[in-house]
Amino acid sequence: MTVTPYLFFNGRAEEAAHFYRKTLGAEIGMLLRFRDNPDAGKPGAEGCAADGRAPDPDSVMHMCLNIGGTAVMGSDGMGNAPLKFEGFSLSYNAKTEADAHRVVKALGDGCEVQMPIARTFFSPAFGMVADRFGISWMVVVEQAQAAAKAAE
Question: Is the pLDDT of residue 26 over 80?
Fold first, then answer.
């Protein structure tokens, strides 16, 4: 069984895809727009928002990003709700301390770094940041990974 995060960006999904490609090396595996729906225009296929509006045909109906071997899916949704991500964080396992510093800086560009990269009892480099979309990230170098790197 696999659990895959699915994030609704309320009109900013394509921007998010390109941001994560630039900052995390994400690969955009799929990006479908509402206009790509072969049933578009047929009764019941409008995908209307709760207020009866049809979504912008150019907005992202579904996307799948591959970030370091992990699928993260997303959509613009219906674009009618406030963009609000609470109660969870995505975790990025950095290969090195330098990578951890780079990722926190890139994700947090112009945003709030919640916890600067620091040594902790569980990691030689751990930090937390909320990105420009409001998604909270934990960036960590795992102890075992750091020990293996040091042994090389």
Answer: yes
